[in-house]
Design brief:
- By secondary structure, this protein is an alpha+beta fold.
- It contains three helices and seven strands; from the N terminus they run αβββββββαα.
- The strands form two sheets. Strands 1-2-3-6-7 form a five-stranded antiparallel beta sheet. A two-stranded antiparallel sheet has the order 4-5.
- The protein is globular.
- The structure holds zinc ion.
- Zinc ion binds near residues 88, 89 and 130.
Amino acid sequence: MKKYELKFYPDPVLRKIAPPVIRVNGAIRHLIKKMSQIMYTFKGIGLAAPQLGNLKRVIIADIGEGLISMINPEILTGFGEDYLEEGCLSLPEKVFNVKRQQSVFVRFLDKNENERESELDGLTARVIQHEIDHLNGVLIIDYAPLSDRLKLNVINELKL
Ligand SMILES: [Zn+2]
């Protein structure tokens, strides 16, 4: 039995780039189910598979309007900009002001391997951008000013 548990910064898996999912099969649907259980347990509003140490391009979100899951999500275009303080389940008790696009147009596969496109805005757009960052090894800490990152003692993490 594979164990699913949340990985915390500075676990190196959080810095890896997840390869795309080739087939959306039962294993992927099982992964989504496990991800949603963990997200709800920790009262998160989004989660990416690499946060469970599973390097696959799978993300989920629920901002209180029902569960969204996306496989191989890709942002095609985006509009506007917006700042908001964000937290992350993998960086407990840390918040950073993160600039994101206000609305995004995303293409992804659903749980049945159908290609879909959707236009998202507001908090949903923000969460999806945050989760897609996880698929590329990017964390909210990367948006913090250098002085904050130094205070957090993450010198070895800085991209110099
Ligand atoms: Zn996160």
